[in-house]
Amino acid sequence: MVNLPQRRTDDLHKGRVSLAGARYFVTCTIEGRIPLLCECTTAVRSVLARLVDDGDAVVLCGVVMPDHLHILVVLEGSLSIGQVVGKLKALTRPALTDSGIRWQRDFFEHHLRPGEKANSYARYMFLNPYRAQLIDRSECWSYWFCDDMSRFDFSSLLDKPQFDRNNYLTI
Q: Which of 1, 29, 88, 114 is most buried per CB count within 10 Å?
């Protein structure tokens, strides 16, 4: 009999705390890492806007990658982070199903502590498509979104004439 590895996703739930007003870095992955999520960007963005309109969360920024989604959110209202992500997954399910993909069970989240800067998480998301070599360093990834880039200190570098994207991406 072959011993298959056991899922350890229950460990993701240990110590999970949901606090209104708290910031969370969240990653949701496509089952089997099938690289078709970008085809569903309109649906994902629409659902994220609905979460904002419903008062569930404020989306600070995010990036849709071919096989996963990163978002930086602030919890609002009475839903837990698990319920907000569950709502996101449930409402995007029809679009994903039409593309032949579905969300992987569970998700990764990191609760940013008070005083912890969100800049490094936003920068990580922004640079993700470049590091994955999905686009040339001279291009912009059209699946990155941010409501207010001025809240992140790395954004000020992007508009400077002397900004060298090639050097910045090696940091």
A: 88
Q: What is the pLDDT of residues 72-89, one digit of tens each?
A: 999 999 999 999 999 999
CB 106 within 8 A of CB 16: no
Give 130-145 as a DSSP string: HHTTSS-TTS--TTEE
Helix (H, G, I), strand (E, B) or coil at 95: helix
DSSP state at residue 148? -
Angle, helix 41-53 to helix 81-98, in steps of 10 degrees: 150
* Residue 6 neighbours by CB distance under 10 Å: 7
CA 112 to chain centre: 14
Q: What percent of the chain is predicted at pLDDT more than 70? A: 81
Q: List all residues 6 or more positions away from 37 whose beta carbon is below 8 Å from its beta carbon.
A: 30, 44, 64, 65, 66, 67, 68, 69, 96, 101
Average pLDDT over residues 7-18: 60
